[in-house]
Write a structure and sequence with these properties.
Elements: H1 2-24, H2 29-68, H3 74-91, H4 105-108
């Protein structure tokens, strides 16, 4: 889509410029129209090529960026959260209903 848009804009600009320049140069109407149509056709092809190259370059850049900066999946993020939660749970000592930690066997003796 970008190639056609670029081509259309460039062709329209070339047509308008050719019409104005033909009028300023005091050329006949037929000569001015022919030259404007020729300029429009040539600039459409040129604009299409420019748009295609630009779109291709942008797509390659985005692809390289995505490869060098991967976004972790939601499953991987959840796995990390579960792992962190389980490590935190293993580090904490459970408390009884009174809020006191139970004594270990070595402390009771």
């Amino acid at each position: 889509m970008h190639a056609r848009m670029t081509a259309s804009l460039l062709a329209l600009a070339a047509f308008a410029i050719a019409i104005v320049m033909g009028i300023v140069a005091d050329n006949s109407e037929i000569t001015t129209i022919r030259r404007a149509l020729l300029a429009m056709f040539c600039c459409y092809l040129l604009g299409y090529a420019i748009g295609w190259i630009g779109r291709r370059a942008a797509a390659e850049h985005v692809q390289r960026y995505k490869q060098s900066h991967p976004i972790p999946s939601e499953d991987a993020e959840l796995d990390l959260q579960v792992q962190a939660a389980s490590e935190n749970a293993a580090d904490t000592t459970p408390q009884d209903a009174s809020g006191l930690r139970p004594r270990s066997q070595s402390q009771a003796a």
